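TL;DR need structure tokens for one chain.
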Amino acid sequence: MSYLRSWFSLDTSSSATKVEPNGSYPNQSLPIPEFNEEDEDDGSDTAGEDDAPPAFPAINSAQRAAASPSSSSDPSRRLSIPKILTDSALMPPPPVPSLATRQPGVPPPQSSSSLLAPMTTTQPPKRLSRRDKVALAPGFGPLDWGNLKASGQNLRGVDALMRIPPSMLKLHNKKEDAWTAINGKVYNITPYLPYHPGGEKELMRVAGRDGTKLFSLTHAWVNADFMLDACLVGFLVSEPSS
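>> reply
TL;DR here they are.
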């Protein structure tokens, strides 16, 4: 029990209560608060105020102070209440563009205001020519043309590549013997006529002449070297000097 005595060491010099030798404690009298029945709140003062709605605005609010006649007469007590502006007062709404009355290619009148970007031209848009594809006969689709090229059949019509001047090229302008030049290379387009998606009539427009310009305007994305590699006849050269 020696370690408990070190925790509860007593100061003999202080005026604190001393422990009796027999282990008993002295009788200490604690003050008991007095209870006064008059201090008890029975709720009689606020019995009739529970159902009353609160004052709005509050009694000490700025709204009541500004509306009271005493405050209006006294400039020192006058409060400045901020005024809340609506969106229309802050900034007017943008004008509604008259999209229903606009015509393509025609600028809007100068008096009308619009948020649309100004047009770069006053000319009406040009109508693009519509190219219709023809219905190919059965067995003349793109896959059939690829199978024909891979079959090993001679689609050139010549034994060796030649140097072909324009005078020689223009002789091959018939449906049974049609040559054309694209990007400096001359092709025998006779076996490709029934496979052309645009029809034989459109392809015959370049028969017997250089069709590079028309080919680029019609379908520049088509790889003519890959499509007509098996029909290569030779290369287009200038006329020999006499």
